[in-house]
Every structure is written in structure tokens, then in C-alpha cells.
Amino acid sequence: MRKQTLNEKISKITTRDRLNSKSFACINSLLLHSFISLMQISASIYSSKDKSLPEIVTELDLHEVDLFHVDCNDDEQVFSDIAYINANSKTPVDLHIISNTPEKYFSKIAECKIRQVSFQYENFASEIQFPASEVQFGLAITSNTPITVFDEYREVCSYVLLMTTTPGKSGGTFNKDTFRRIRQFQKRYPDKSIQVDGGVNAEVSFILRNLGVESAVVGSYLFSEKYVGTALLNLKKQVVGSHFLLKDFMLMDDELPVIQEAELNFEKALLEIETYKMAFVLITDTYGILKGLISNADVRKGLLKNMDNLQNIQMSDIINPCPIAMNENKTIYDLLLFIKNINFPLQYLPVVNDHNKLTGAILFTNLIKGEL
To answer: Given pLDDT bands bounded at 50, 70 and 90, which one contains residue 36?
Structure first.
């Protein structure tokens, strides 16, 4: 029997039942269990301490890992391992070179037909001149390096590799400031992709998927689990609760469309929605207290209500004065419980502090499966 798509399941609910709180709860439950993004998992092959390379390649291929991550700490021997991988697997190699003289590896990179290669910026003795190639080049930077160093390489590099732990070493702890750096990079380089390496486990992966990260390098978590397949499922598809707080990874208020209520008018609301392309605008008072939200749906309702005379549209016709919001100190676990119990589909969620002052928002667009 053909498996139903998520769209078909939702359609069945909406045609079988009237749209009430129960049916919306069912829809939200389906969305939660379909929180999958296109984020790839790049398995760090040298993180396994008790298996041979042939065993690692066979096991990872069995579970259809996306990429093999190979760290080259100025060691040409890794190219022998890459040659073995290429001869025995169709899974692409994701190479990370940590060297003061990365140019000496250019010919070997071309010979091995590697899909993508990142170079550790902090090890450069001088500016690197990348060769013309079909290889995707990336720039790897540590947590202490400003993302603006990407400027000088943006013409030749298609992605950044954000290191959250010591480059080339496995088993570190994820640096939560990386969430902020991801948003900063996306804003400054919207046409470039982001990869993350270091301390990624299931709970971190859930947030990275939410933020739209293209791929995550995973080592210790992947090989420390009893079954690699279970670890991969958790990394790519599971909705995982976490000790991380909403304020750790939310969009900050200065990254959002916000209008003070004293300055609010219909035209300004439309301009903010169009400029930020988030399908909503948040309303605050002069103290930053959340006073309302205007969504695309609210605008449509206002237009329909005043179709005979659009000049009569009032802010009260389009503003939701009591939008749902969550406290910034709530955990992801709290967030998941909340989503399961609300009675309408959720695409974004304002975040406030203990005094109801707007501090940010959570967007869910990157987590919704592509078939929606």
C-alpha cells in the first residue's frame, strides 16, 4: 500500500472533520512528527576509536549517511583513506584541511575528485589563492574569529564551516553562541550556505535544522550511540527536547519586523511585512511591551471586510491584540509541549521576557517537510 504523504494526511483531517480545536491539534501533531529539514549529516570518520575504515564505511553506507567528513591535520596520509572511500562507496567526501600551507594539497584534491573542501582560516600563513575547480570550497572559522573574514573569500567559497570546538578534535562541547553567529552569517551572506562542526548531538541538531543549516559534522555522538542508525535518525528526523532555552537560539528583536503602536498605520505594516518577508509584523509600545501582531492572514481579513471602501481600513481590523507568545526562559521541551496543545497551525511565535517585553521570535519554516 502506498504511504500517505503529510499533505494527504492533513487533507484527510480537514475533509473528514470540521476545522475545530481537535482537528488543528491533529495537524500540529503531524507537523511536529514531520520536522525534517534538508540538513545533511557529515560523519566524522576519525571519531570512531574501535572500528577500521572499511567497517566504518560499510556501516555508514548501510544507514545512508550523507557525507564522509575527513579531517586533514596537515597529514597527506588521509588521501589514501579518501582513495579507499572513493573506490568502495558512492558517498561524497567532505574534506577539512588544517594546514599553514594548504596550497600543497590542491593537486591531490583534484586527483581525488572531492566534492567539497573547507580550509581552516586561522592556520593561513598568508591569503590563499584558490584554483579554478569544480570543487566546492569553504572557509572554516573558529568561534573567536569574526564572520566578516569571509568577505575576502566570498567570491570563491560557497559555504562557511563554523567550528564550535577545537578544529580536528572530537568530543568537544557545543558553543551555543554559534546560534547567534549562524543568524549573523545568514544576514550578511544570504547566498552562501552554512555548515557546523563540533559538539553536535540530537538536541543541537534540532535547533540547527530550525535555523536552516545545510549540514552538520557529527563524530562523537554518532559513534558513541549503541546503534549508528538510531543516532542518525535522532540527528535528522526526530523532534528532540532539550535544556537549551528559547533565548539561546531565537531571532532577536532587532532582527524582526517591529513597529511601535504610536507609529502604526496600514501602509507601514505592509512595508514591514514585505521588507522582512516573514509574513508578519510585531507591534510594541514605547517600552517594548508586546501589544499585538499583524499577519498576512490578518491583512487579507481586513481587506475583505472593507472591500467596498479600502480607505476605511482601521488598525483594529487587521491587528491581533492578543497574540500567543512564550517566555524566553522556556526550554525546547516546553515549546514542543506547547505546540502539541494549541488549536491552530503555528508558523512563528513571539518570545517575551518576564515583563512581557518583546525579546525575539521563533520561526518554524525551516522545520516543515518539503512536501508541505
So the answer is: very low
* CA quadruple 166, 170, 173, 174: dihedral sign: positive
Q: Coil, strand, or helix at residue 239?
A: coil
Q: Where do the domains of the chain lie? A: 40-240, 249-367
pTM for the complete prediction? 0.81
Q: 242: number of CA atoms within 13 Å, CB side? A: 23
Residues 320, 253: Cα–Cα separation, whole Å: 19
CA separation for the pair 44, 262 (Å, rounded) = 53
Q: Which amino acid is at 239?
A: V
Sheet containing strand 290-295, edge to edge, reads 258-260, 280-284, 290-295
pLDDT for 91: 97
Instruction: Tell me the average pLDDT across 99-125.
Output: 94
Q: Which CATH class is domain 249-367?
A: alpha beta
173 vs 165: CA distance, rounded Å: 7
- Which phi and psi (to 5°) does residue 155 adopt? -75, -25
SS3 44: strand
Here the cell at position 333 is: 521541551
- pLDDT tens-digit series, residues 309-364: 877 788 888 999 999 999 999 998 888 888 888 877 788 999 999 999 999 999 98
Multiple choice CATH, 40-240, 3.60.110.10, 3.20.20.70, 3.30.110.30, 3.40.1410.10: 3.20.20.70
User: How far is Cα 295 from Cα 276, in angstroms, rounded to an integer?
Assistant: 12
The answer to whether 161 and 195 have CB atoms below 8 angstroms apart is: yes
